Amino acid sequence: MAHPKRPLDGIRVLDIATFIAAPYAAAILGEFGAEVIKVEQPGGGDTFRRFGSITERDGDSLMWLSEARNKNSVTLDLRKPEGRELFLKLVARTDVIAENFRPGTLEKWGLGWEELRRVNPGLILLRISGYGQTGPYKDRPGFARIAHAFGGLSYLAGMPGDVPVTPGSTSLADYMSGLYGAIGVLLALRHRDATGEGQVIDLALYESVFRALDEIAPAFAMFGKVREREGAGTVNACPHGHFRCGDGKWVALACTTDRMFARLAEAMERPELADGAKWGLLRNRLAERADVDALVGHWAATRPRETVMELCLDFEVPAAPLNTIADIFEDPQFQARGNLLEVADAVLGGVVVPGVVPKLSATPGRVDHLGPRLGEDNARVYGGLLGLGEAEIAELKSKGVI
């Protein structure tokens, strides 16, 4: 059966980046039809291949298999003159380049924006780095943990007065920046369609984090307010947090309005709690937040999570289980939405990865294959796309260029 056309069919992306942020942007584009050519260093390839749980398929990690999906791998040493010239030939046939080297690295190799634009005036260059291409910190190295800290997120994560923690123990800033990077590419493609002109997308990891911190910037500017760690709750709503149930499992409750609390009081068989004189008004609940949370906590602790969830859903109280990954694999919602996608691999068999987001009704994205083997597309790209002969490819390989 023929696959439906995807919105980015015909777009070619050169992914010369490493690890997560810019490569994630390229992966999103690839899910929706773009041809993504992953350019890796000859010999070892992208160090991301060895990051995370290692598999029996050439030692590639599960992170690589999942996040490099749909990509084609070629090897090329951009630091060598022959590699630079070969790369520029690819650039001439490319729509987008995704890179995340430290600012100045491409320029040092003779592959800065002016040179790339000279070869391809319609080129779009996505540049993601720790601190962006400008500013006094542009030369500093940056990773997700550093971005979480510098962007203001880590200070907010953790229990009040305790050690700030990494939010979610995941590379959130990388994934957020990849999303913003993909948005930037789509906007730039729209502009190019109208004008024929390419452009540079300059994105810092910390900026993606800072952009997601709701009102903390205007609140500080207007009132001098510095938000502190609030733990599982929030100072803006109550009850609004995580509560341990009688079976040791956890549930999240979010009563952001008085009506929601009234419904929770009904579920708890304590409707009098929602009287205006008691906790029916948000200001009263916030003033006695510890007591409210303690009472709700006691109610949850005397019931298994399944019962707590049933009562909340029956009374339309916003609630959800705090799922482990084991819970997620058993949850029918994840199954129904295709959030867990099994992709076949010749060596490993079926590998489960996160599904494609978002879902488009007419032109849905898809995962065609997992992350590629190192250099497996050299012949197709250098021979088929650039027209190099077998002898030329063999010579480049002997010189360590590819």
CATH topology of the largest domain: Rossmann fold
Helix share, percent: 25-40%
According to CATH, the homologous superfamily of the largest domain is Crotonobetainyl-coa:carnitine coa-transferase, domain 1
Order of SSEs? EHEHEHEHHEHHEHHEEHHHHEHHEEHH
Mean pLDDT, to the nearest integer, reads 96
Shape: elongated
Number of domains: 2
Residue ranges: pLDDT <50 for 5 or more in a row?
none
What's the CATH architecture name of the largest domain? Answer: 3-Layer(aba) Sandwich
CATH class (first level) name of the largest domain: Alpha Beta
Rg, rounded, reads 25 Å
Structural class: alpha/beta
| Total count of helical runs of at least 4 residues | 17
Pfam family, one: CoA_transf_3
GO molecular function: transferase activity
Keywords: Transferase
InterPro entries: CoA-transferase_III, CoA-Trfase_fam_III, CoA-Trfase_III_dom3_sf, CoA-Trfase_III_dom_1_sf
Q: Which key terms come to mind for this protein?
A:
alpha/beta; transferase; 2 domains; transferase activity; Rossmann fold; 6-stranded parallel sheet; CoA-transferase_III; CoA-Trfase_fam_III; single chain; formyl-coa transferase, domain 3; 402 residues
